[in-house]
Fold these 2 entries.
Entry 1:
Amino acid sequence: MSPEKKRAMIKRDHPELSISQQCKLVRLSRSAFYYSPVGIDANTLVMMKEIDRVFTRYPFFGSRQIAAYLRREGIVVGRHRVRRLMAKMGLEAIYKRPRTSQPHPQHPVYPYLLRKMQIDRPNQVWCADITFVPVRNGFLYLVAIMDWASRKVLSWSLSNTMHADFCVEALQEAIAKYGPPEICNTDQGSQFTGSAWITTLTTAGVRISMDGRGRYLDNIFIERLWRSLKQEAIYLEEIRDGFQARRVIKDWMAFYNTERPHSALDRLTPDDAYWAGLGEQKAA
C-alpha cells in the first residue's frame, strides 16, 4: 500500500488511538505522516507565500498594510482575503501579539513569571514558538525550543498539523538532551496549554510561564530566528516537500547554532554561549 493511502487511513481526531498508534498499525513512519504538506490550491498557496514573505520582513504589518504593500508590487489582493489567509497561517501583526497558535477556552492559563527577571544563564529560561513553512504544494508548521540566554535552538520539529504532538516531541527531545530548564515561557496557544505539554513540563519539575497581553516582545528572539531562517534558507530555493524542508531546516539550524555569531552574545555563536555559560555555572 502506498504512503498516500496509508496517510488517508489515519484520523487526526480518533477517539481512542493516537496518531503514533495509528501510524504503527498501518506501518507508516510518523515522519512520513507529518512531512506530507497540507494541500491547497496553487493560486492560494502562491498568495500565502507572498503574504508570509511580507510578514517575515515586516512583522508589524496588519492585513491592510500587507494588502497595500502587495498592490504596490503589482499583486492585486483585497484586505479581507489577506486577513483570511493570515488567520489560516496563524499570523497577526506583532504589536497585537503573534497568533500562530490559538488559545483554547478550556485550557488553563499560567501566570507570567519573567517580569523584571534577569535572564543570564543557560537553562534558566526556555521559550517555544511555531511558524508557517511554505512548500511547493502546500505548507507545514515548524516549532522550535530555544534557550533564552544563549539563543541556542535546542530542538525543533515539523508537522502538517497544528496538533500539539509535534510540539511535545520537540520539548521531550530538548529535555532528554540538555536536562530541564528552570522555567519554560510560551504564548497561550492551545499547543502550549494542552495537557500533554503541561504534563511534560510539570513531570520534569519545570515552572510554567505564559505571555499575557502586551508581552509580545518576549517572543522577539524566536521571531528573529524565523526571519533569518526564511530569508537565508527557505526562500532561497523552491522546497518540494516535507523531506526536503527538513533537510534545509536541519542544515540551517546547524549553521545558526555553531557558526553564526551574535552581537548580543559578544560575537559568540549560540553553541559557544550555551556551553560557556554552563561551564561558568559549574565553576561557581
Note: Residues 39-96 form one domain.
Entry 2:
Amino acid sequence: MPKDYSKYLDYENKILEDRYIIDKFLGCGGMAVVFRARDTYLNNMVVAIKILKDDVANDETAVRRFTNEARIARELKHNNIVAVQDIKTNGRVKYMVMEYLFGITLKEYLVAKKKPFSTDEIIGYSAQILRALGEAHRNHIIHRDIKPQNIMLLKDGKVKVMDFGVAKRPDMTTLTATDKAVGTVYYMSPEQAAGKKNIDTRSDIYSLGAMMYELATGQTPFKGEESLTILVKHMQEEPVPPRQYNSSIPVGLEQIILCAMSKDPAARFQTAEEMLGYIKQLQANKKIKFDELPSNSFWKNFRGRIKRLFKKEK
C-alpha cells in the first residue's frame, strides 16, 4: 500500500462520465492509480480504471506515454493482451478503462514461489507471451518492456501481457526526450542498453529470454549494485548457462533461452512465431536437443565469411 494511499480514497464511490462507479483502490505505479469499478452502461460489468496521477497529469511526456499505452493496447485484440475498452485523455481526469483481471502478476508469483518454475510452467507461460508478442509485432508494435511485472497470470491459467506505455512502432517518432535505455535493466536487450534508436521486434525476444532465464533459475541473468553495471553486462557479458544453476532444466530449454539472449539480434529467433515453434517442439519432447538454432546458423555463417575473407587476402 502506498504511503499516500489516503489521497486516493477520494476517488472511491465517485462516478466518472456518468458511467463508471469507482468502488475500490487496487494499486498504483509511478504515473497512474488503478481502481476497480462498475460500468453502468454494461449491466454493472466489473472493469479496471487506470487514472493518471494529478502530479503528472500536465506533464507532456507522461501524458504522451499514457495515451500511447491506451491507443496501442486498444488496437491490439488478442486473448493474451489486456483489453482496453475506453480512453479519455483530453479532460482534467485522464483515464483508460480495461478488462478487470482476476489474478496476480508474474512478479508477485515469482516472489511468492521462492524457487525456480517447472519446465511446464515456463513453456506454458512463454508460449502465451509469444502469441501476444506475435500479434503486437504483426501490427508493427514493439513492447520494449517485457518483464514479470507486466505479465498477468489469471486464475484459469491464461496469461495477459499489459503495459504498452513505452511501446512503439519502428517508424514512430521518439516517445521520450532522449528515447535512450527505455525498459527495465534486468531484462533489457543489448541494443536497448546501448541506447540505439533503431531497435526492432527482436529486442522483445531478448527480454523474454531474460525473463525465462529468471523463471528457470530463480535469478536474473545479470546482477549489479548499479543500473549502469547491469546494462554494461547485457552489452558485453554472456550469461552463465542456466543449467549451471538448475541442472533439472532440459537442455532444449537452455538452448532456447540462450538463443533468445544472443547479443546480436541476427543470432536470435527472428520472430515470435519462430521461437514459439521451438517451444512447441520442446513441449512435445522434453528431452529434445536442437541441432539447428538461429544462433548456430548465425555463427556458422559468420565463421564461413571470416574464412572466405582470409582466403581472399592470401
Note: Residues 171-181 have pLDDT under 50 and may be disordered.
